[in-house]
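Lab notebook, bench 4. The sequencing result for the construct came back, and we need a structural model before the next group meeting so we can plan mutations. Quick request posted to the team channel:

Model the 3D structure of this chain.
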Amino acid sequence: KAIKAKELPKLDDEFAQEVSEFDTLADYKADIKKNLTEKKKEAAKSERERLAVAAAVENATMEIPEQMVDAQTRQMTQEFAQRLSSQGLSIDQYMQFTGLTPQKMIEELKPQALKRIQSRLVLEAVVAAENIETTEEELDKEIENMASMYQMEVDKLKEVIGEEEKKQIGLDLAVQKAVEIVTEAAVEK
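Done. Here's the predicted structure in token form:
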């Protein structure tokens, strides 16, 4: 039998130096506050964008072929399997744990796949209607960001990326600009 008590560290400059790169507790607290504020702003921005794009999709009329939805569903399944794999779990193990079958998983992903296709088509239509283009500088900056993310040299990544991939990256950047246009238009109303 024992009596135990938690001893919490004293919140002072010494604590801040031990747990961070800051010299003072005040600087450490300011950095935490700044990070939390940025995360909240980013989350709010993402939600505004999601709602604006959803409203644009709702107002659009389009027919999506079933094959397109099936292809998007397969891609989403592969992306999910890759995320699981990076966490050390196979898709088969996941299905055993959750009791899902491949067919049930596909059925659950279909509505998301349809929304993803609809959103992309609407945004690509905005890109075309607004003549949105990606500059070489923006493309280079995105490739630099990708190189940093993959821990590669920029020149080596540029060698690996073909012209089709560059076009796709450019279109993705243009689509992001379209998201901003749709969001601004939605906020004005």
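The mean pLDDT is 91.
Will bring this to the meeting.
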